[in-house]
Amino acid sequence: MLQQGSGLCYNSLLATGYAVKIACLVNTYPRASHTFIRREIHALERMGFAVHRLAMRSDRAALQDEADKAEDLRTEHVLELGRSRLAGTALGWMLRHPAASARALACAWRLGKRAGNRPRHAVYLAEAAYVAARCHTLGIHHIHAHFGTNSASVALLAHLLGGPRYSFTVHGPEEFDAPHSLALDEKIRHAAFTVAISSFGRSQLCRWSAVTDWPRLKVVHCGIEPARFPDPAPVPAKLRLVAIGRFSEQKGFPLLIEAVAQAIRHHPDLHLTLVGDGPLRGEIEALIETHTLRRHVTLAGWLTEAQVRAELAAAQALVLPSFAEGLPMVVMEAMAAGRPVLATAIAGLPELVTPETGWLVPAGDATALAEGINQIASLPLARLTEMGRAARARVLARHDVNREATKLALLIRAAAES
């Protein structure tokens, strides 16, 4: 059996001659904000893994990047099969596996009680039966789910229904907000292993799982593809900042608008580009009008990966004003692009952003964010460039997707062979 600490390297995995067939299970895939999943899948495939993409639904209407559109075509979307086909496949599997179905039904009942929504978990049970049947048909050895929410519920129930062993990656912060109703302890107990994307994330999983399960809690960072980040563009002379993410409560963008309103009193040439969209767009637009910041703030909407890299190249730094996070990909991408980061000191961010690579400020404090912007503005280009180089070196050392996917590959192969 291959263990994570065995020293087996990327090339050794390719040379084993044993192709592991796995399913990557996600609730909605692909999404513009889930490029880290695509990168991980592609890295596993480069190692010789056969990866079947399984998602309950697609977000194709919102996809702009051609790579995401191509990934959508490679993904089996369960709910697009139609109710009759899904129900027929699920019922057929359950009738052929009555004892396993009874165990899974009891588990779905418990999960539904904890979540306060048993009807929804009845749907998860049907989806899980379909997934178990598909894994049997395709000869899949292992299921790896992303997020500890309903995708992990389906993976757990599929396993109890007689499907393959499973694992899942917890990204946060949603899972950290509702560990009891999500039954993280039960999902962790039944999983072959559970992945956190930072040491902070693993510490939170330790809080909600049995001590005996802690050895199976692993850290595998989300990864970037170094080849997509060649030598950084020179840091621009103008005070331009960029913030990237969904316009939701946890990202703190309204607070960033308040900070910009304070910072322009000292730096009237400051410009911020917000990349993304979401439910708080109206509130953000209203704040921009209230503070007469239309000349200083651009709402760019969702952009392709190439366009995001262009925005990073045009900025002196990335700003992340979040109230809750896991360990955001945008921080890794900014650092790989040679840009320092101004972020809130929460979750896994202090593991990546250091005084040599950026600034950490208290969450929820617009004045602290404004002071961080002032610090960026006060530094000469040479110092910003030096910080950007340190940021690039740090993220490439810690978040190379091939290196991180190798860690996951070792864990999956060990689980499949045990």
From TrEMBL:
InterPro entries: Glycosyltransferase_grp1. The keyword Coiled coil applies. SUPFAM superfamilies: UDP-Glycosyltransferase/glycogen phosphorylase. Pfam families: Glyco_trans_1_4. Residues 53-80 form a coiled coil. Gene3D superfamilies: Glycogen Phosphorylase B. One of its GO terms (molecular function) is glycosyltransferase activity. The keyword Secreted does not apply. Keywords: Coiled coil, Transferase. PANTHER family: SULFOQUINOVOSYL TRANSFERASE SQD2 (PTHR45947), TEICHURONIC ACID BIOSYNTHESIS GLYCOSYLTRANSFERASE TUAC-RELATED (PTHR45947:SF15). This is Glycosyltransferase involved in cell wall bisynthesis. It comes from Gemmobacter aquatilis.
